[in-house]
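Recap from last week: sequence in, structure out.
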Amino acid sequence: MPAPRFMAKEQIEASSALHDLRKRRRITIAAFAFVTIFLLSGFEFGPSGNGRTAFSLEGDPTWEAAMIVEAEMPSEMRDVVLFIGPSWENEGGNILAHSVLNEVVARYDEVMSNEEITEHFATRYSWQVQMNVTGPWAFANTVRSIMNQQSPVSQQIDWNGSTFENASSEEINDALTRLFSIEMPDGSHPYAASISGLEKDGQGVWTGSASFIFGEADMSSLVGPEGEYSLIPEDTKPFFEEWEIMIDDIYSRPMTNTGEEVHVWSYLAIDTEINDEVAQTLPLIGISFILMVIILGVFFRDIRDVAAASAGLGLLMGWMYGTQAWLGYPQTQISSMLPILLLALGVDFSFHGLHRWRAMANKNGGDEEARLAAAWMSIKELRPALGLATITTMIAFGTAAFSSIPDLAEWGVLAVIFIFEAYLLLGIFTVVLRSGNKVKVGDPQEKFAAKMRKLAGIQVRKPMPFILILLLLTGSALAIGQPDTDFNAKDYVDNDSRMMRSLEVTELTFEIEDKGEPGYIFVNGNGIDLAEYETLESIQQFMKKMDENNWTYGKDSIVDMLVWQNQLVKQGGPGFESQSINNDTGLPSQTSDIQLMLLDIQRNGTYDPADPRSMVTPGGVAELSKINSETGELEMMILPMKVGIAHDWPWMTDYKAQVEELIDQEVILNGDQEAILTGQSFQRYVYVNAMTTSFQSSIYLAVVACFVILFIVFRDVRLSLLTISPVIAVSLWLYAGMNIAGVSLNLVTLQVASLAIGLGLDYAIHVTQAIREQKNRRPDAGMERWTEGMMGHTGSALIASGFTDIVGFSVLLLSVMPMFAMFGKVMIAMVILAQAACVFILPAMLTKWGGINVKSAEELTA
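Predicted structure tokens:
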């Protein structure tokens, strides 16, 4: 009778253990469900987004100067720029053809007939017709206005012919001849200069290849406090680019009816274009998800394994987007790539977790208690490898969080959080969820595992050929070097988009390379009045030298306006007349006189009596200077300049140094007054420098931090160095390959090294840790058996995981955004190289130098 009592007690204990395991599983799943609900609520209760401008660099003096100018000297107007030029992929037609001029003015009339559009256009002075105009004004509008006797220029060219609407082609050509013949005192022909590619054909007919269409939006009406639109997306009002799109929709229609191969291009709605392309790319994440699930099915061949892993991946997607919603981070091009990265990492976790769980559950009988217990045992056994891989990957990705570039810093923060979430969901939740269902007996990949074990034997017996391959490739990569850093719009936007085609046509048609692009020098008084004669006279001399060096476009500053105002008053114009004018400079020598003249200019604007085209409105004055409206003190100003080769970074470095040296030599500043080079060209320049700095620092920080973590866990310097060295080699291989392929470093590709270290080290840790586990289980088996054991289990899972990653990343090749497509190519190369280095070369290195097959002092004593 004691036996039955004993058996009953054993059954009770077993039942109790099963009950505890079931309870533990239910509590775990409930906890994950609670966290899921909380994170998903971020879509409803989280911040709506900070509306930060993409590609910004907060805290940098150049960017700070630009932001101060925007805040303190805001433009009352916003340029609305289009241009008519050749249609796509042809030599173009004649934009001065009668039919084209008619079509352009018809488009203008259509725009101006729409009150939703016209109410936000500002009136501006046009020198071409010497009167105020509004809307997107083209050269065709100028011709019509003059021919219709609506401009003072009509009398100046003695036009008495037909109106524009009734004119023949010959009369149009006659009017053009008269306009192009107008010559200024300096010998220039302003009307002829406004047409690119201007020529006369053999029959005396004027032809032109391109010309700008220019308008100005009233910012107060458009996006002011009472404005209809918002300056940033995700606001309570519609984004102002919706207004620009209404204009662009009219002008972007084909002009085939003109008989000329011409088209109107534009630079409107740029942010909308980028956001639309990001939105078009997001569905690819879903395709990637589906393909990864299919690969999981091929590997596991059990719908229950696939369902559990798919549930974990699906929850990971929700957790990631919910977390981003709670943080209020905007959806940028960079952050949009993280989900695919984390899907790949999550698949890696699920392969290892489910593979180990299934082996342990089958080994212990496969019943419910064995399955439930195997879940926690496999999680515990994999914790050294998966936990270490998670930490090092978080470190490698997280180094971007220290970047001065907000896009990269946010990417780093999100990556750290997302990686931890991936470990929780795919390394723990998926296994616990799967343990509730029956386990399939046997390993469907046994044949593949046998081949992997055979390869392991070759690596251990003949390690040197594998090591030599690593050394040769790494040496070649070091000799080739890394690619240059760049900031090219073609890397970020669909090259077939209207915006990119507009840019390309502009470069070809207007010879932008020869003309450079605008920049400016921001002179900030920092509380000290700049309206001092010595300061203004030094700036005048400085700008003359800038002009002599061909470093300006001849555009005017507030100093020039003071000279104009003096001449204007002397000729009987309104305003204060100074008695302290210096005859050499044309500037008042008394500060009080300068201040009074500045107040006149601020209130009324001014112009150069010798050139009516130079008229500056009070709004234009406010865009170039900040004048105290009560005292006349000059608080800050900008000095326009030309940046000749803005895309050439070495040239920019030298140019910036030369201008700054000239400022130091010529410009007299007092106290805290400062002069800073800024504008979009210089902002891009410092942005690229920041990218390069971020790239270098992230690599060093990731390598050092990951090595420290490896050493803490392995407690072996040699083993830590060997584990991380193939990953560093992969980074060098990747950048050498990019250099050979002519791929530059941009916001995405500069992260390749960190990604290679993060994901590659994940592979390497699994290899090293699996061999150590094999040694702990069978201490007398030897290095060959340990490596074979690793290859049969961990190696097979790594290969399957890598193949799934490649399939997932290949979907990005379908993206319309070059940055996403390039990211896909680089990541595919990275996975292949990392797999090769860690699975096929690392075991050989560990055999040769790892010392794993040498017995420790404890083992010898035992």
